[in-house]
């Protein structure tokens, strides 16, 4: 079985794919019993779908591939701390473990702003490991937004 860093590097590869097509560079990989079940990156802009986050896409693909909605025993690797919507999907799909790279101080729902994935009022709690490949996960976001700001200035003739 591969380790957390190896799977997070796969998620980072997905994040880079997102950046290449102008999507917010977030990648996700879902693993069950040592097998990669699904990989994805954000597709919100491309699909014009507010719910097309890397995590929700991976969850949908995994459910379809496994022909079940319960993903008990699975680990979700994601480059950035999930937002409330994605954290809710993690709980609802019964994912056993969440591993993420960088915290999200603006929308994080695993520890930063909220703790949806381990809220005792909900029907499922998920084991969380934070900070795996944190520097790389943060850097891909910084590079993306730095380039976006530069491109925006050039497009405005500034």
Written overview of the protein:
The chain is of the alpha/beta class. 41% of the residues lie in helices and 19% in strands. Strand 3, helix 4 and strand 4 form a beta-alpha-beta unit.
Structural class: alpha/beta
Topology pattern, helix = H, strand = E: HEEHHEHEEH
Strand order of the largest sheet: 2-1-3-4-5
Give the end-to-end Cα distance, rounded to a whole number of Å.
51 Å
Shape, principal axes of CA atoms: globular
Largest sheet: 5 strands, mixed
- Give the percentage of residues in beta strands: 15-25%
| Helix count, DSSP H or I runs of 4 or more residues | 5
What are the low-pLDDT stretches, counting only 5+ consecutive residues below 50?
none
Q: Helical amount among residues, as a percent range?
A: 40-55%
> On the 0-100 scale, what is the average pLDDT?
94
Cα gyration radius (Å): 15 Å
Give a quick set of tags describing it.
single chain, 158 residues, alpha/beta, 5-stranded mixed sheet, 5 helices, 5 strands
Task: Please give the structural blueprint.
Layout (H helix, E strand, L loop, with lengths): L3 H17 L6 E6 L2 E7 L2 H4 L6 H13 L7 E7 L3 H9 L4 E6 L24 E4 L3 H22 L3
Parallel strand pairs: 3-4, 4-5
Antiparallel strand pairs: 1-2, 1-3
Helix pairs in contact: 1-5
Summarize the structure.
The protein has 158 residues and is of the alpha/beta class.
């Amino acid at each position: 079985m591969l380790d957390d860093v190896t799977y997070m590097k796969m998620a980072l590869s997905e994040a880079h794919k997102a950046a290449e097509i102008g999507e917010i560079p977030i990648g996700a990989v879902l693993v069950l019993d040592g097998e990669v079940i699904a990989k994805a990156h954000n597709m919100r802009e491309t699909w014009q779908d507010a719910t097309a986050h890397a995590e929700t896409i991976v969850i949908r693909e995994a459910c379809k591939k496994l022909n079940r909605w319960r993903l008990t025993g699975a680990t979700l690797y994601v480059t950035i701390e999930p937002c409330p919507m994605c954290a809710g999907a993690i709980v609802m799909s019964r994912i056993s473990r969440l591993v993420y790279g960088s915290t999200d101080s603006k929308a994080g729902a695993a520890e930063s702003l909220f703790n949806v994935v381990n809220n005792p009022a909900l029907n499922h709690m998920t084991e969380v490991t934070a900070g795996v490949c944190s520097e790389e996960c943060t850097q891909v976001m910084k590079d993306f937004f730095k380039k976006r700001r530069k491109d925006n200035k050039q497009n405005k003739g500034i």
